[in-house]
Structures are given as structure tokens and as C-alpha cells.
Amino acid sequence: NAGVTQTPKFQVLKTGQSMTLQCAQDMNHNSMYWYRQDPGMGLRLIYYSASEGTTDKGEVPNGYNVSRLNKREFSLRLESAAPSQTSVYFCASSGGMADTQYFGPGTRLTVL
Amino acid sequence: KQEVTQIPAALSVPEGENLVLNCSFTDSAIYNLQWFRQDPGKGLTSLLLIQSSQREQTSGRLNASLDKSSGRSTLYIAASQPGDSATYLCAVRRSGSARQLTFGSGTQLTVLP
Q1: Which of B101, B105, B106 sits opposite A101 (nearest CB)?
Q2: B93·A99 Cβ contact <8 A
């Protein structure tokens, strides 16, 4: 099983450019999440999707949009990138009673 | 608002030592608590999940305990090995329908050969 996959692994953008981070899971999980990780700040939730067709804001949603394309895929879009969005982005999924979250390998994004 | 604290931020021990990592949280109304491991440049790997009704969970050399009333969890690593070197993060999920996790900043563990 691939688990949770993310593309791309690395990306450099200029301020104002847009891009979409892709995430897919093959564990038939209902819930999916996008986090960002910054030094000294821990992981912070950007958006989550409790089930296909629903999305909700997390702790730091400003400047981002998401799409739950189907049960497998959950994308994160930066419409107009800013240097403050330089970070490592992780996608995760969870399901079942225990609801353990499984993480992808991350996307390292730099905005110049 | 839930806050999760992990102390110390970094820990260095010689190989073979038993060690304890600490996690504290401010709101005891939690659904579960998870411990993760993160290697440099990698994603998070789930180690143990403790439901709010449980007191501890064990997996191999790892034992995690939970004291909801005092807002504390510990991760005990027995007979540490250099391969245990990583950052360890705890995260809590609050009670209710929301499934979000609130993370601590992690403890960076180095096990010296």
C-alpha cells in the first residue's frame, strides 16, 4: 500500500504565483487533513474534510482553499503565494473507530 | 483553546538508557492522544494512540500513559538505541465530532552510541 502520497515534494514560487498541492490516500479513509509545519510552531491544521463533499477551516485557513475531489483525493490551493506561506505542508488521512491519522511525506514550499 | 506542551525540547542520552518524554495539555476533554515520530525531512509516523478511557498503551519497547485529569501523557522508551533518534510529537483530539489534532512542538531525541 502507498498510504498517503503528496505531490510535488519540493516547490519554489515567486510572490503572487499560484499552485495546487495534491494529496491522495488508498486506505479508504473518510477524513483528510492539511497541516503546515513551521520551526517552533509545531503542526497547525489548515483545512480538513470529515467526509467526501465536506470541508472545514482549521486553525490557519487564510490564504488557502481546498477541494475534496473524491474520497481518495484532497487538494490544497494557494491562490496568491506570500513569503509567510513558506513552510512544509503535510496531508493526512484517518478512518475507523481509532481514527489514527496517517501522514504523507510532505511538500517543502518556498515562496520568494 | 487546547494547548499542548512538550518538555524538554531536546534530549540527549547514551545508548541503552530508559527514558521518558513528557506531554501536557490544558483541556482534559479529549477523545484520544497520539504519539508520533518524525525523522528529519520526513512525514510523521504514528507510534501509539490512547483513547480517553485508557490509561496506557504498549508497543514493543514503547509505553505511553495517559492521565486525563492532570492533563499529562508520557512516552517511555526502554533500552534506547541510536535508531530511536528522531523528534517525538504528541497530539490530542478533543471530544465531540471534530477530528482535528492539536500538536505539541515536539522533543528532539538523540541517542548516542
Answers
A1: B101
A2: yes
C-alpha angle with apex A89: A83 to A92, nearest 5 degrees?
160
Q: Residues of A with CB below 8 A from B59's CB?
A: none
DSSP structural state of residue A22: E
For CA atoms A25, A27, A29, A31, the dihedral sign is negative
| Residue showing cell 463533499 | A53
**Cα B83 from Cα B75, distance rounded (Å):** 16
- Encode pLDDT of B42-87 as tens digits: 899 999 999 999 999 999 999 999 999 999 999 999 999 999 999 9
- pLDDT tens, position by position, A6-33: 999 999 999 999 999 999 999 999 999 9
Nearest to A99 among B43, B44, B99 (CB): B99
A95 contact B CB<8A: no
